[in-house]
Structures are given as C-alpha cells and as structure tokens.
Amino acid sequence: MSIRNERDYVLITLGLKNGVVENVVENLSDRQQLIVDLLKKNNTLSAGQIAGRLSVTERTIQRDLNELKRRRIILHVGPMKGGFWKIMDDQ
Asked: What whole-number distance in Å separates Cα of residue 16 and Cα of residue 26?
C-alpha cells in the first residue's frame, strides 16, 4: 500500500491479490471485532444472543451489525428468522 498526499487530494494505492483488495477494513471497535469473531464461530446468532454474550443492549448490537453491513464486512443471507451471517473476504 502506498499513500501519496497531493495538494487537493490523498491518493491511496492498495495492492491486489487475486483481484481482491487485501486488508481494506478500517479499524473496527473492540466490540465490532468481537461480533465478527462470534459470527465466525456461529453464523446463526441473533442480535439478542450476541447482546447477551457481550452484556450490552440488543439495540447497540443492531447498530454495530448495521455498521458492519454498511462497511461490507458482513452480509445477512436469507430471512431474519432462519438466515445466517456471511463474513465477507474472511475478515
């Protein structure tokens, strides 16, 4: 990766491996990383189950899941009841 600071912009060049950008994930919060780790072990966990394991509210987990989805780190496949979480590019 190279970073070049120009007058009006910053140019970041990322190396590619097999056409996939590596290590592009911005820094995750500790809780978001814990969520990803939990979903790697059990991809059918609900927000409520994750909240219980991390001792936070379900709404807090829902916000974290939405942020992880927005950043394309995770993807929910199937219906909310009965679906599963997919970790994108094995973060």
From this structure: 17
Per-residue pLDDT of the chain (91 residues; tens, 9 = 90+): 677 766 666 666 666 555 444 444 558 999 999 999 999 999 999 999 999 999 999 999 999 999 999 999 999 999 988 899 999 965 4
Distance of alpha carbon 36 from the chain centroid: 6
Cut 0.85: pTM above it: no
Strand partners, 16: 21
Beta pairing, strands 10-13 & 16-17: unpaired
- What is the rounded distance in angstroms from the CA atom of residue 2 to the CA atom of residue 9? 14
Instruction: Render 18-82 in DSSP notation, one character per residue.
Output: TTEE-S-PPPPPHHHHHHHHHHHH-TT--HHHHHHHHTS-HHHHHHHHHHHHHTTSEEEES-TTT
In whole angstroms, give the CA distance from residue 60 to residue 63: 5
